[in-house]
Fold these 2 entries.
Entry 1:
Amino acid sequence: MLLFLHSPSPPTQLHSSSPNTLFSSFSTAQSNNSIFSTSQSTPPNIKAYNVDDGVPEGYVFVEKPQEDIELFMIVAPQNFSKGMEMAVEESGRKLSCLVTNAFFWFAKEMALENGYPFILLGLVPSLLMFILIY
C-alpha cells in the first residue's frame, strides 16, 4: 500500500503502474475534496483519508502568514500515525515501505519505530507526499 501525506496533490499517475498496490492518500478534508473531486473517477486502488487540519474549534486566525500550515504541522505526526493504523486495519494489508518528502521530518522516526523501510525524497512543495507501501 502507498500512503500519501500531501499538499496539494499526490502523484496519482503511480496507480496505473502498479494496479495491485493500494495507494492511500492522507491530507485534510479540504485538500482531499479538491484532489478527489466527484467530477473525476478515482481509480479503485486509491483511497483518500482525511486527517485533522490542526485548527482548534472556534480558533480565530490572526492573519499570520502560514498560520494554517503551522497548526497543521503541530498535529501532523499524531494524525498521520493514526491514519497509518487506520489504513492498515481497513485494508487488511501489512505496510511494507514508507516513502515521504523530507519536509515531514517525523516520518523517518515513524518508519523506524514500526520497522518499515523508508525513503525520504526532496520534492518541491507542490509534490509533498507521504507514502506507505503494502
Note: The domain at 2-133 is CATH 3.40.50.2000 (Rossmann fold).
Entry 2:
Amino acid sequence: MFVIGNIEYLATAASTSLWSNIKETVKSEGNFSEFLTTKCQKHNTEQIIKHWKDFEIKCPEGGCQVRCDEMLECGHKCALFCHGYDMEHFNIKCEQPCLKICCHKIPCKKLCHEECDPCEFNEDGNCYYKPLENVDSIESILNEEAKVAAEEYSRNAEISFLLDGERPKFYKK
C-alpha cells in the first residue's frame, strides 16, 4: 500500500490513533520514503514522483512521457503519450485529418475518427471517400491541385487584364 500525502498531518490531525499507528509502523519497518518510483512497463523508463502533480507531468496517460506512436488502424500514429489502457487501440479515437480521398481527388474534410460524408460532387450517388494506399499520395494530390489552382488563377488574371485593362496586384509576368 502506498500513502501519498502529508503523513505528519494525518497522524496529528486525525481523531483516532489509526494514522499515528500507521506512521510509526511504516517508519519502524523502514518503508517510509519522500518519493515513489514508477516504471513504465513498455519503455522501462523510471519516473520519480514526489508530489501528486508529478503524476500529471511524468505519467500523463498512466505510462511515461514518451509518445505512444503505435500505428492505428487508420494509418496514423497514436498521438497520445504512452498509456496503460487500451494497448490494442480498439477505443482510441484518431484526431488527425482523414486520409480518404474521393474519385474527384478531393480529400475528406473530417477528422479521421469521424464518418465521411459523400463527396460534395456526389451527383450520381456513387462518389464516396476511399482510403489511399499511402499517406504520401495525398500530399502529391494536394500539391497537384495547388498547381492547377495557381494556373487557373493565372489564366483568370490574364482574362481579367484583357477585358478590364487592369493587371491584378498579385499577377507576375
Note: Strands lie at 36-39, 46-49, 62-67, 81-83, 100-101, 130-131.
